Every structure is written in C-alpha cells, then in structure tokens.
C-alpha cells in the first residue's frame, strides 16, 4: 500500500471511529508501528488529526460524519430560520437540486405553497416526504444506501446527475471557512460539487456554528456561492459575506 493510500485509510478510520491506535493500524495495514507513527505525525502537521498517546483523534476544528438522528437534534431553530429565508428564492415550476442533511430537510414544509416543482436529491428522507405531494415531482439518485446518513450514492447515480440541470441548488455543509466548504466524505463532496456546477444559482445553507471548521474533503470555494444563508449570530461571518459581495437574505 502506498503512503497516500495509508493516509486516506487512517483519515477514514478516524472519521468513522473518532480515534485510531498505532498498534491496530500497524496490524491492519501490515506495516511497522514506526511507519504508522510517521504517518500520524505527517497528518497532524497537515492539521488533519491530533496525536494522542498511542494513537490519534480528530482535531477539534474538524468535523466527523454524524448520524442523521443526532444531526436532527442540533440547532433546530437556526435551521428553520435558514429554511424560511431560503424558500423565498423558490418559485413555481423550478428545477431544484436538494442536497442531503437536516438543514436541507428543514426546507420541505415551505415547499407546499409551490406548484410543478421538480426536485432532484440523494437524501432518502427528502425523497420519501416529497413523494406524498401531488405538486412536486421527485427524482432520487440511485445507488448504495448509507444507513448512517440515509443517503443513496453510486457511480451510476453520479453519472445520471451529470446529465441533469437545475435552476437552483440548495447545498448543506458540516464545515466551512473563509476559503472552502467541506464534506466528510469524497462521494458526497463530488455530488455537492456537481449540483453546484449544474445549477444556474447555488445557495449554501449553514448555521454559523459551522464557520471556521474543516472537513476531510473540500468541494468548492466559499465565495463561489451566489447566496449564503445563515443565522445572524456570527459577526465575523456576516462581515465575510459583505466583504465578498455574496448575497444573503
């Protein structure tokens, strides 16, 4: 296994388990503990993990993938505030990409007043709830079902997404800073980026607690979004939006 492959394995292991040990990694990757320590030291130098006695954990400013149930209990009021603002950009007859996650799911109650919407998503909960509406056509990107995040992803689904174009894309994130917006997995990062590329306008929906955090994969520059809709509790974030001439509501 090459060095880059070991690094990717270690980071994915931390993402899924919160921590790793030198001894276990040495056995799993079939390399010496000295090699593993060098790998961990290098990754710590990149601010991708934090060394501990006998292993490593995720750094404090990095996010890991949480289950959908755990996410649904966080920042409920902020998510509803953001969703209400975001819904003002919607109109009848639009084609819309909806990213996955609980912030995006908060938009769903506000869609009932619109007609003839075409919604494309890979979020199973979004697809299920919208399937009950007669005025909304829902398209679910197919593929492997991730039971932790309740999403559906595959190479075939991504290939289908490349052929679809939308008026708006509503994108969520677990982490962003002044430079980049991040995802915790490579597959989700690819889907988010493709949705942005294939839409006329892209809107980032994020509560301010996610500012100044990082994820494993960046999928776009923060100032590339047409709109950033967030709660108003972070003055530094509000100033960043103004200085970069990014629209908000």
Beta-strand residue percentage = 15-25%
Helix/strand-derived class?
Answer: alpha/beta
Distance between the termini: 49 Å
- Tell the overall outline: globular
Strand order of the largest sheet: 6-5-4-9-12-14
Second-tier CATH architecture of the largest domain: 3-Layer(aba) Sandwich
Instruction: Flag low-confidence runs.
Output: none
Query: Rounded to an integer, what's the Rg over CA atoms?
Result: 19 Å
- Return the average pLDDT rounded to an integer: 88
Q: What pattern of helices and strands is seen along the backbone?
A: HEHHEEHHEHEHEEEHEEEHEEEH
Briefly note the CATH topology name of the largest domain: Rossmann fold
- Helical residue percent? 25-40%
Number of domains: 2
Number of helical regions = 10
For the record, the CATH class of the largest domain is Alpha Beta
Q: Could you give a short account of the major beta sheet? A: 6 strands, parallel
Number of strands: 14
